[in-house]
From TrEMBL:
PANTHER family documented for this protein: D-ALANYL-D-ALANINE CARBOXYPEPTIDASE (PTHR46825:SF7), D-ALANYL-D-ALANINE-CARBOXYPEPTIDASE/ENDOPEPTIDASE AMPH (PTHR46825)
Matches recorded under Gene3D superfamilies: DD-peptidase/beta-lactamase superfamily
Protein name (database record): Serine hydrolase
Keywords: Hydrolase
Coiled coil stretches, renumbered: none
Amino acid sequence: MIGRMTTAFEALLPTTERSLLHRVARAQSEGRAPSFVGAVARGGAMVWSGSRSCVDGHAPDADTQYRIGSITKVFTAVLVLRLRDEGLLGLDDPLEKHLPGTGVGEVTVAQLLGHTAGLAAETPSPWWERTPGATRPELADVLGETPVLHPAGRSFHYSNPGYTLLGALVEAVRGVSWEEALRTEILEPLGMDRTTGEPVAPHAGGWAVHPWADVMLPEPTEDLGVMGAAGRLWSTAADLCRFGGFLIEGDDSVLRAASVAEMRVPVGPPAVGDPLMGYGLGLQLAQKEGGALVGHGGSLPGFVAGLWVDVEEGLVGVALANATSGPMTGVVATDLVRIVAEAEPRLPEPWRPLPESEVDQELLALTGPWYWGTYAFGLRLGAERGVVLEPLRGAGRRARFKALPEGGWIGLDGYYAGETLRVVRRPDGGVSHLDLGSFVFTREPYEPGDAVPGGVDEKGWRGL
């Protein structure tokens, strides 16, 4: 019941593999799933997969398709970010600019991506996941008469119609169908030939398991029509491992690493009642035991799915099951990641000196302690002439800075993200201080004669 993809990456230990299989077996048994597939990728390749089935000798493998529901939304978000990177739209653009006539055109692209547009969670009746897409052929049918429930930009409210609008936006700007854009811009470049809009054998059938008895009922598989961008796709554990690797490293043929990293940044407050779960640009963000994870869950009648990634460890966990409810695939996917991270933590990269071309004596002279008031910070050189500013004692505002072509640096993360750090010199050319968004950092704390806002008491430091 274990299948493996041959890779150049170091194999997992037998004890780790046993723990992974045990977790999948327990999930299938306790979740009462007809079948369950789990997989782990590391270093960009699948290193383990395992499965369990209610039919002896007929367990699925990592190449068996399952419906992945809302994991589809991550693919739609990638397509939108591609349009942004090409300069065809802006994330702050109102929807009306590119997709007129929806009736909700004042909401922005970013708000739709992050579920902060205030739109309803679902379409008007009947239940869209269990009825043909022909029931709601137009966007107006998806949105209904009262599509807006909350003020835009104020709070997180998950919206399936919002991602239907993003699929229509892709079609309007790109000039091809959402599925065609998906195939040529994401699936083919990443080699995901087992991810499709319709099931392609071998694939699992969707089942409903009775909540109070060990009996099953087949679930219908509907063509979701215009709702496809919110949850249509079928995929496999192997393909989702490839996609998870992309969510860690990016791929210039699809979306550059910086834009993928942007997807992982929270865009609003967490959902009410779930302070450990946030949302970025198309990605769910979770604070779990052992660290932060990004990914997405998915469900449609007959199927549940989970894809979660630990960027720091370079690990991807995938869990797929063919039951409407019961199997906790999201939990299992995160557990698979945790099992490997704890049993076989990633080895840190070897320390290496900076390339000679990046060593600048003037920059080197700026390193060391600096003081914001009496707070002690250290400035050290980073890669590509960047710098890192971090507190020397206790918790504080640590940030990385990227060098600007015109001089100075721009903050990349934390409190100082987007803020400019620059060197201020005296008339004689010597360094006076560092300016960071109006904060003054001096070489000594409140040294007389330094450029300290408000000045320094002329009596200097004193005892009680």
